[in-house]
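Here is the promised in-class demo. Please do not try to memorize the tokens; focus on the logic of going from shape to residues.
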């Protein structure tokens, strides 16, 4: 039960940070979009490669959430810093040995002064189609194939086979579902894929744990962007629709919830190579 509650809490945190994406006022969107278009005209090249650098969420013109990616000299992720300006700062740092990841450290610092800092360091153990993240407190096993995550499992002394999440995809590697827990009472179903574009870097319509760990490890959950998510929690269905905007090279620049109800949007920035 504790593991399931932790899983649900984690998903809830992700949902809170991803569930409010809709446009700001039209005049603001028009002004900023014009600037973006001008920049895109100078870099309209299908061969352009960009590294995801930052996402920022604005609500009623106020920055409420951001994620910043820092790279080393080999263009490998050095750290990911996520800031929820109301609640916490999460810093995930990767350590390498000859370009091979040896450990990942996660530090959570909370705005609540009475809540102590959380600090975890995971040893990264590579196996055949499985990566184990091992800490002094717990371990996470990530099963993958062809560069895509199939499932994550957190072994427990009394519940050794509990799976935190299971991913299913179609023949084109498009994400169809993510189920949390072996009881399968909490499942997200995805559809309406926006093909032949780069994947939404923040995964605004997808909900799953360890997203930043997957990013550091070079693993994906879907090939194309799903635009619709149907959540089934104990028989209660809720639906989320996402509208994406792209630059001339097919990289996602903005995400919005549909319909527009709360003056919130997310913009994404990249480093061009």
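The designed amino acids, position by position:
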């Amino acid at each position: 039960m504790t593991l399931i509650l932790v899983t649900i809490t984690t998903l809830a945190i992700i949902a809170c940070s991803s569930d409010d994406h809709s446009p700001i006022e039209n005049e603001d969107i028009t002004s900023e979009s014009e600037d973006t278009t001008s920049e895109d005209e100078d870099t309209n090249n299908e061969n352009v490669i960009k590294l995801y650098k930052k996402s920022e969420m604005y609500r009623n013109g106020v920055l409420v959430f951001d994620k910043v990616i820092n790279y080393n000299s080999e263009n490998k992720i050095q750290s990911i810093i996520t800031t929820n300006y109301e609640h916490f700062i999460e810093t995930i740092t990767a350590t390498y040995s000859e370009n091979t990841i040896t450990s990942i450290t996660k530090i959570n610092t909370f705005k609540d002064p009475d809540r102590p800092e959380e600090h975890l360091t995971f040893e990264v153990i590579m196996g055949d189609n499985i990566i184990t993240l091992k800490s002094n407190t717990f371990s996470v096993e990530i099963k993958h194939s062809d560069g895509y995550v199939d499932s994550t499992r957190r072994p427990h002394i009394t519940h050794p086979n509990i799976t935190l999440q299971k991913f299913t995809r179609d023949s084109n590697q498009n994400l169809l579902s993510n189920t949390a827990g072996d009881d399968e009472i909490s499942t997200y179903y995805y559809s309406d894929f926006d093909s032949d574009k780069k994947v939404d870097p923040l995964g605004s319509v997808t909900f799953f744990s360890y997203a930043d760990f997957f990013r550091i490890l070079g693993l994906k959950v879907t090939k194309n962007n799903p635009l619709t998510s149907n959540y089934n929690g104990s028989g209660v269905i809720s639906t989320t629709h996402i509208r994406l905007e792209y630059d001339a090279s097919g990289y996602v620049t903005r995400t919005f919830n549909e319909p527009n109800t709360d003056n919130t949007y997310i913009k994404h920035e990249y480093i061009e190579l």
